[in-house]
Sequence to fold (491 residues):
Amino acid sequence: MSVSWINDPTAVGYFEPTRFDAAVHDCEVIEGAIPSDLRGTFYRVGGDWFYPPKFRDDSPFNADGYVSMFRFADGSVDYQGRFVRTQRYLADAKARRQLFGYYRNAHTDDPAAKGVSRNVANTNMVAHAGRLFALKEDSRPMMIDPNTLATLGEWDFHGRYQTPTFTAHPKIDHTTGEMICFGYEASGDASNDIVFYFVDKSGRISRQVRFKAPYVSMIHDIAISDKHIIIPVYGMVTSPERLQSGKIHWGWDRTATTWYGVLPRDGEASDVRWFKGPERAIVHTFNATTQGDKVVMEAPISDSNPFPFFPAIDGTPFDRAAARTLVRRVTLNLGSKDDSWREEILYPDAPGALSRVDDRYLTRPYRYGYMGYSDSKRPFDSVRGGNMAGRITNSYGRFDFATGKLDSYFAGDVQSLQECSFAPRSAQAAEGDGYLIGVASNYAERNSELVVVDAMSMQGVARVRMPFRLSNQIHGVFVPAADLPGFSTGA
Ligand code: V55
Ligand code: FE
Fold:
């Protein structure tokens, strides 16, 4: 390996790739104590460039998948992290260089990459029917051993998942155990086909629904109520011509209409109803509820392109102000003949992107959302932490959608928080009774910390010091010990 990392402006200083597999038995608790009722695993995944990207303006979303876990039991916590051994990682490691080109554009690959899966499995982890997956939305789920983090290969649901793509944000209805998932660009790159799959609690596909999006766009996340599925389509666009011309997969179209499709959970393709409105980006969602004729969704939404590495197709510069994601409520009225949607900004001063809920309430009536956000009233020590302007998520918020209240936990003046996951106090605990778990980057000490926060009081419960910078996280999930086979914490 001989190429300098300096080519990638997103991967220098604290953000340099880590490149190593790691294990730390019995991590160092520096504040508070690990709750003794916390028993389970916080799985996280993100991208870590094993070799530098071929193109310096590539997206960090194209980096190699790296999975890690914090295993909680008996008031202690253990850590382990490994690269996902994707076909792509193994081909690069053998060649000792980067063979793959731009994010989701195989036309830009080295000839030696031909026929090798581009799945990096770097976006989200989900456990369902006793299996654990690392997900990338351009590929099928990568199965991961929940106890060793070994890579077990792509899963096709007993041969019944016949779509090349699978969302990074499947939703599990905890009252039925059903998983609702989908693939977009389902008939190949830049196709506008969407296929929804309904997977029963034993892991078997029971039904599928195929329909067309109004145009090809990123469909990163959806929201589901007890009756409906909301599918956002917005100006992150691509085309066969764009890919053939060797560009990064996505470009932003400022003139695109934002559409919300509503599919009844028991409906067919002909039942999809589309609502239209002005330029927006809806990358993530909290949850949704059906209230009579209305389908209501809470989500962090921006007015325009949130991602500087997916440039505007009209060549105009990235607009930082319009990229701010704020918590909003969108109402879709199925009882109205009008096809427009209604939107309110619920929290104008809490910008953040990685929205979560108590996952047991996904698809059900709910009250609380959780999200890391940047609180401009909190201090940052740039003498010790460096100039991190625009890169600080200093607080976890509990957004109370019943009252509009926001309670928060501040991580410290040299820290930035990655996404939190919710861990219930017990399987029977009420909504929101449990812990928020997440990793903080400590820019002064150049290491990482694990934080555990009481999700009711929003007070810190424990802080763990890691002896190195952890590989970056996109998303994670807490899985109670009983939900996956073979949970143990031996040395
Ligand atoms: C996102 C992340 C991705 C991706 C598409 O955060 C969208 C949104 C980490 O990869 O491929
Ligand atoms: Fe996501």
User: Anything to note?
Assistant: The two ends are 33 Å apart (CA to CA). The mean pLDDT is 96.
